[in-house]
Amino acid sequence: MVLVFQQMLWQMLTMVSAPAFWMMAGVVYLQVRRRTIQKEDMFQVRREPVIGLTVRMILAGLAGGMLASILLLLTGAALECIRLELVWILALLLMMIRQRFFCFAYAGGILACLHCLTGWPNLAVSHLLMMVAVLHCTEAFLVLVTGHWNALPVYLRDEQGRMTGGFLLQMTWPLPLIMLFAMAGDSGPPQAGFFLFPEWWPLMEHPQDGAGNHLYMLLPVLAALGYSDAAVHQTIIRKTRQSAGYLLCYSACLMLLVLLTDNQGMWQLLPALFAPIGHEAVIRAGKNQKAIANGPYRAPEYGVKILDVQKGSPAARAGLRREDWIIALDGKPVKNRKHFLEQANCLSQDVLLEYRRNGKTRSARLAMHNTMQTGIITVPDDDCPIYWALEDDAGFVKFIYKKCEKTLKKIR
User: Fold this and answer.
1) SS3 for 310?
2) Exposure pattern of 320-331 as b/e (b: 16+ CB <10 Å)?
3) What CATH number is attached to the domain comprising 322?
4) Distance between CA atoms of 174 and 24, rounded to whole angstroms?
5) Is 252 found in the same domain as 316?
6) What is the per-residue pLDDT across 203-227, written as a single tens digit (0 to 9) for each?
7) 89-122 confidence digits (pLDDT tens)
8) What is the pTM of this model?
9) Rounded to whole angstroms, how far apart are CA atoms 157 and 166?
10) Is 275 helix (H, G, I), strand (E, B) or coil?
11) Number of domains the chain contains
């Protein structure tokens, strides 16, 4: 087994040095940069550094890729049984309808159903759906650990027409996978680079003639995971924990169904149908959150609440955090958001700030260092005229149609 893990590490390094991986890293960089520009434009704050967060997201993707590779190795999902090219093509086509359909849960489930009902395409349902389950288990881990890193603060109107703060959560992780590739052979000594596993491993049998009659090699595959959500009626940490919990339950149920129905003919329709239906249920469960009258990002009766703190700002250096409740500035009570902004815009030297956190009153000194920005993004009140409108989950076809419609109107 030591030799197997050494080979996995070597293949991982090979994938990291490939141009395709760095293209995906560039996509991550552009996403982070776009978020920082949006925050700068909306709140007129200094732009935060991009490179550091990009590197952290790439490293998180590498850790997730190693976790997924180990799980795929333990379950025995073989690359040649999955028809990964068809999964990618179908996922891209589904993305034209809805962006959230760009997920292997939908594409893999549809292909698995087609195979069970018609025999086409030629693939192993258990291997394909096990890969889907492992990827979502890895996504649960990444969401739990890093899902809050690239949060964009926004002002929104809730269902009652009141202003509330919130965060748009969007992450993308490059995911280098190391997967088994089975080659038919006898049980003689394997050549260099090949492995002969015992009969009980992989756990899932190979669709042709059983796991014991195959030599295996490890091949690198580049994948990517994405996470998109909104934290409005819950804090970011509670939202990411909830999303991770839903994804983990979905992954565990799908894995169990796959193992119970492995090579059981039409019974494999159960996990094939559960893959897209269960994933859709996870998304809808995350969105069915009732509005809370006094949510974490609603304006208090007096003072002002912190929605976000800019990295490297005076507020960050003073130890202020999200959801801190500012009640006084230089000994003068803060009435509301407008009053705080008027005072904050006139600061040019160190200032003493009083705030509450977890029911306790604290104080902090903002060292302005001749800057005019405290680095505090406040929770909005109902008088705030600017807010973000959440767009529908439209696919690329509808997006292109709207762009063409706007262009034609301008020409006319």
Assistant:
1) coil
2) bebbbbbbebee
3) 2.30.42.10
4) 6
5) no
6) 677 765 554 456 788 889 988 898 9
7) 999 899 888 878 889 999 999 999 999 999 999 9
8) 0.89
9) 10
10) helix
11) 2
